[in-house]
Structures are given as C-alpha cells and as structure tokens.
Amino acid sequence: MTSLPESIRRFGPSRRIRHVIYYIIGLVSLVVFYAVAYNYALARLEGVNQSIFASFEFVIQTMTTTGYGQDSDIWSHPLMFLFVASIQISGIAIGFFTLRLIIIPLFTSAQVNLDDRLSPKSDHVIICEYRRDSVILLDELKQLGIDYVLISSSREDAESLSNRGYAAIHGSPQSAATFERASIRTARAVITDAGNANVNTILTVRTLRSDIDVIALTDDSDMEGVLRTVGADTVLSPHAVLGHRLAEKAVASFSSELRDTIEIGGTTKLMELPVSESSELVGRKIRDTKVRERTGATIVGAWFDGELQLPPSPDAVVSPNTVLLVSGEEAALEELNEFTRPPRSFTEHERFVLLGLGEVGQAAKSVIQEAGGDVVGIDLEERDGVDVVGDGGSREALLEAGVETAGAIVVGVPDDSVALLTTAMAQSLSPEIEILVRVGDAETTQKAFTAGADYVLSVPRVSARMVAKELRGEDILAPASQIRLVRVPAAEFAGKTLANSRIYEQTGCRVIAIQDADGQTVDIDPQRRFTGDERLTIVGRDEAVQKFLKRFDVSPTDLAS
C-alpha cells in the first residue's frame, strides 16, 4: 500500500506546499492523539467517562487558549495536571509555528525562497532571462504539457511570476549553482534569451552537461555562427522570421502565387488568405460569399479583428482586415485568392514602404526585393537602405516615401506607440494601402487592427511559437499563427461517425482531412463510420488542440508541410 507521504510526493506539489501538508497532517494527528489520550486518562485516572467528542473539544479549547473551565473541577490526579499542562504548552508552541510557517508568508511581503515553491522537476526545460513577455511563452509550454523552470536575474520579476503560479526562480544564468537549483541534471533542454550574456550562459551550461539541447534566441541573426560555435544547437531569430512573414503577406496581397500552404492530404492544402480593402468579399456575410460553390475551396475559419472563429459564423461579415483560413486543391485556392487580393496584380517595381530598418525591416526588405518590388525605407537614423530619415509617425516622412501610391507599408519599429500612430496616419493618407504591423506587446494587437492594420504580428507570440515548435516538433500553419495543425490516429473513434464523435463540440477543433489505412485522402462524410485505421487532420487554436489531445488521450503524428 502506498504511504501518504509517498502519495504526496507523486502528486508533485512544491517544496513549500509539501511542508505545509506535512505540518497539517502532523497537527491533526497530534490533536487526535491528545483527544484519545485525554479521554482515556479521564476514565482511568479520574473515573470519568465522557464522549470522545467532548474530549476533542477540550483539546481544541486548550491548544487555542480559548478555555477549558468546564473540566477543571474533575481533575485530581497529578498525572492529569501534568498532561493538561503539556497540552497547553504545546498549543502555544504550535501557534507560533503556524504563524511563522503559514500566516506570515501569506499576509506579509516577507521575502520567500522561490526554490521552495518548485515541484520536483524531470524532463523539463530551463529558460534563462526570457525577455519577450515570459507569460506568453510559459502559457504556451503549459498548453503543450511541457514542464519548465524560468531563471531570472531580477528578483522582482521572478517573484512576480512565482506569485502568479509560474515556476520561476531568482539567480544568475551565468552561475553553475543556479542551474543546479533548476535541476539541470534531469532537464531536457535549456533556452537562453540573455542578449549579450547568451555566450556566457551557453558556456556555463556546457560545463555542466555536454549532452543537453541548447536553444538560443537572438535579435541579431549575424550572431548565429558565434552562438553555434560556443555550443548552441539551435539559434532562433524571431525578428527575422517576423519580418519575412510580414513581407510575404505584403507581396502575397498582390500576387496570384500561393504562399505558406500546408499539404493536409493528397492534393488538399491549407492556407491563410488576408482579405484586401478592395476585395469583392468585403461587406458580405460568410454565407453570401458562396466560396465553395464558386471555387471549390472551403472556409475552415476566419480571423475577425484578431479574433478567431472556427468555423466562422455564417452571419459574420467579411471586413478588410479579415484573414480567411481556407482548404482545398491548389486550383481552388488560386481562384479564391483572386477574390481576396486587390484588383491590380503585383507588377515589377511595385513600391513597398518599410518603416524601421532594423532586424525586422532588413528581413522584410530581402523578401520584397527578391519578389521584384521596390523598397522605400524610413528610419530615424541614416544607414544603409534608408531613403527617408525621419519619424514614421510623421506625415511629412510618409508623404516623402510615397505612401499615397505605395502598394503596402510594413511597420517594423520596436515602439508600439509609434507603430500605432504610423498605422493610423498611413490609413488616413491612403485608405487602400495594405498595412502590416509588428508589435512588441501582444495586447497591442487589437489596437493595431482598430487603427487600420490589415495584418498584425506580435514579437512575443512569434517567439513563443518558434520555441514551442522546436521543443514539441509540431507542425503549425506558421510560427506567427495561433493556429495549430496536427494529424492524429482515429483509433479512439473506431465504430463512430464524425457526426457523433462530437469532436468540435467537446474541444473546438475541426477535422479538415481524413486519410484511410492506405494513406489515401477520402471525402469528409459526417455519416462515414471510422474503422480506427484512419488518420485525422485537425485544426484549432492552441488551447483547443491541447484540449483535444488530452480529452481523447491521443498523440500527434508527423504532418508534412
């Protein structure tokens, strides 16, 4: 039989919680012992028989110093007086221990040892100095079921995260002792986002373990070689990925060429299609677009002002910043693309305005120039590639860059306030222009859509998705998307039809492709009964897919992309 302390250890609470649990168990055991012993002593020493509950009440009154007068006149034996005195003394001592162990840490700002809050760790990841909104990454890992410890050199930040329930400790990631406290011996990977201290951190990790996977994040893609040389296995540059993604979306708005598609079975593909201001779909309800009848493509989901509907409501109205999530054969998607993009096609030397020529801007510039577009760069500093020196929020700078006749503007500045101002200004100067925006705070996304942006990506979200993809290896539509796409075995649904499996109702995920035992893609028939040998491709938001995997206890298989 498993002992209670062993059961507590398996449950996995933090060290501090375990101490409190042990303390409470000990206190309850002591009270029960006192009650039984007092009841027995009264009967043997004083010849008084009373209910065990009355003895229990006496013990509680005595230990809490609230009184015991109703029994004092029946004591006469010396041992009884000594026993009662011991209960009184132990009650006072326990009161002080309770105050120090539980009450003071809960209701004062007394400094606590964050290590005591950690549950036992194994096969976890250690995150060092994450600078891109830690909560988004930690929530992403939680949704994927990946355990972690975050190391922060800022005690204030570490305590704030710990107080909110995240596994965070205070310490220097350049110290071997800090990694030992984070249980590096049993960890599966280390993620470092320590800026200039990345090299020091990686070298510290390698002195402790040569076999652990090290993932480094950097805002300077030129540092990749250096970081790999000192021991990083993977180097991620979120700003470069974000810049590429924004530029690809800008170019795709004027091109019939399909980009960022994922094969979900046979010739069926899935992709995102932003709806332009001048698209004939704008202003129509989803049911009135007749997309399937006209093109053969299926609208799986849609983003409306940054909010995903999966599937979209038939009465939802398509707006200029709507992004459709569609599936179908390539010919069908190409035909639908004609309805979503501007009436004019991409031509050589199409002008694109870039605001900010940092890592994001440079990455966007390379994509646009490769596609044959002309780039007009705006930046506060005069540097290579800058055509207009000035503030992006300045009307004069935008006019000098020719925003009125440009096809799109990519806003890649690190200041969200400037990004929002530029978005609103560009929209007022050229209502038809495509506006694609990078934001540093995920909460600014909705504000950017309201200001007039057509497509918005947040650095924290892109970074978290890139890290999650490296750790989990799951295929998603893009690191910048909040959509997750996984393929799972259908064994759990053997004997059921898609209609009565209630996948969407229970999890919010949608089945978009079915492959039979021979790997052939079959039609999605709600009344077709599963044999259990099929593989289902499902799509959903992060939390919906995680809910699906837990609810049906399945693991994703490989998905070609």
From TrEMBL:
Organism: Haloferax larsenii
Keyword Transmembrane helix in annotation: yes
Alphabetic keyword roster: Membrane, Transmembrane, Transmembrane helix
Keyword Transmembrane helix on entry: yes
Matches recorded under SUPFAM superfamilies: NAD(P)-binding Rossmann-fold domains (SSF51735), TrkA C-terminal domain-like (SSF116726), Voltage-gated potassium channels (SSF81324)
Domain RCK N-terminal: 122-236
Protein name, UniProt field: NAD-binding protein
InterPro entries: NAD(P)-bd_dom_sf, RCK_C, RCK_C_sf, RCK_N, Trk_Ktr_HKT_K-transport
Segments forming domain RCK C-terminal: 257-342, 471-554
Membrane-spanning segments: 20-41, 79-103
